[in-house]
Design a protein that fits this description.
The chain is mostly beta strands. It has three helices and 15 strands. The strands form two sheets. An eight-stranded antiparallel beta sheet has the order 1-4-13-6-7-8-9-15. The protein has a seven-stranded antiparallel beta sheet with strand order 2-3-14-5-10-11-12.
């Protein structure tokens, strides 16, 4: 009996050790707690595909089928800030489908726009989603595209529950966060490689079969339609261009005033994610012309 009890305790120890090792260390600072949640209608409106969009009990649902996808847009432009939403992704075969939450000024500066992206790249039955982060500036997303992609797997199944995804854009840096864990920092090393013009906040679900899944190898298959994205817990903690001039963006770390910057604890959490779940970094891609990305 004692031997059986010992084996049970040992198995529980290994189980909890394994599951805890699958989660990042605590970042110690939780910027989402600094920003009040709002309802969809308080901060956003439909942009396209209105027949493929509904709000029910605080959750926005958008979907893609063979006739259309759908997208939404913030009511205001922002100069900087914290922008987030809780998102639950569609399970099963989603190749070719992108579910997104991003900042852009493409409508204001067509052909010369800035953009900060969180994009979930759809997948096949046997592979996990990829979360792609990207930054464009001064038209690097137009024409001959110069992407600055970093792609990650996640330490959880994003189809099982809502998780919080956010972009923190300050005058000095851009931080991408998943459940308050920083996964990527993009620093302002020069004005030429950093987005500075005001941007709107968008979300969408759409067919990007030409490139989304393994460079277009797998396409959207509409026998599995509709493909559904669910969003709630919206946060717009930004400095709107039509707001108060005294507005200050949220700090990326707990340092209080000044320049911001991540704490050592946040850095440690980010290093853990990048060591265990980073699957692509544009700076390390030998196929790329790095004279076009001097920040590398």
């Amino acid at each position: 009996m004692a031997h059986s009890y010992f084996l049970i305790l040992l198995s529980l120890f290994f189980f909890f050790s394994f599951t805890s090792s699958q989660n990042p260390p605590s970042p110690g600072y939780f910027p989402s707690n600094q920003v009040q949640s709002i309802g969809f209608d308080q901060g956003f409106r439909n942009r396209w595909g209105s027949q493929h969009q509904k709000v029910d009990q605080g959750t926005l649902t958008i979907w893609l089928d063979s006739s259309s996808g759908s997208g939404f847009k913030s009511l205001h432009r922002y100069q900087s800030g914290y922008f987030g939403a809780a998102i639950k992704l569609h399970p099963g075969y989603t190749a070719g489908v992108i579910t997104s939450f991003y900042l852009s000024n493409n409508e204001d500066y067509p052909g010369n726009h800035d953009e900060i992206d969180i994009e979930f790249l759809g997948t096949t039955f046997d592979k996990p989603y990829i979360l792609q982060t990207n930054v464009f500036m001064r038209g690097s997303g137009d024409g001959n595209i110069i992407g600055r992609e970093m792609r990650f797997h996640l330490w959880f199944d994003p189809t099982q529950d809502f998780h919080n995804y956010a972009i923190l854009w300050t005058p000095e840096e851009i931080i991408f966060l998943v459940d308050d864990v920083p996964i990527r920092r993009y620093e302002r090393k020069s004005d030429a490689t950093f987005p500075v013009k005001p941007m709107w906040v968008y979300g969408s679900i759409w067919d990007a079969s030409s490139w989304a899944t393994e460079d277009g190898k797998y396409k959207a298959d509409y026998k599995y339609q509709p493909f559904i994205g669910r969003y709630n817990n919206f946060k717009l903690g930004g400095c709107a261009t039509d707001g108060a001039a005294s507005c200050r963006p949220l700090n990326s770390g707990p340092s209080g005033g000044g320049r911001g910057g991540l704490s050592q604890q946040q850095e440690k959490a980010m290093e853990w994610v990048q060591s265990n779940y980073l699957v692509y970094n544009y700076c390390h891609d030998p196929r790329r012309d790095h004279t076009l990305t001097p920040e590398c």
